[in-house]
Amino acid sequence: MSSISNEPDTASREFVKQSSLYQEFLAEREEILKHKWLESERLGYDIGFERALLDWIRKHREGWRAARRQQMAQQQQAAPAKP
Predict the structure, then answer these.
(1) pLDDT tens by residue, 69-83
(2) What gap in Å lies between CA 28 and CA 7, rounded to an integer?
(3) Burial class (CB in 10 A: 0-12, 13-18, 19+), 32
(4) Residues 39, 55: contact at Cβ < 8 Å?
(5) Alpha-carbon span 39 to 31, nearest angstrom
(6) In sequence order, which residues have a C-beta less than 8 Å from that of residue 61 and are 6 or more positions away?
(7) Rounded to two decimals, what is the model's pTM?
């Protein structure tokens, strides 16, 4: 029997890290963590990730995504076209 590794190879991991979907996930996660910190500071105790996530989605996600799409569109327009 051949041994099959459960770990993805390095090329696969790098592909995932470079994917736009993963980059969006990381950016959104960072915003949620900022929200968690700000709300925890405001309330004087750690609100936890789940509460911060739900609160951020309800209050900020739509606006953040719209601003992010606009920012990405502007960056694409500013970037020189590849030959």
Answers:
(1) 999 898 888 877 665
(2) 26
(3) buried
(4) yes
(5) 12
(6) 28
(7) 0.72
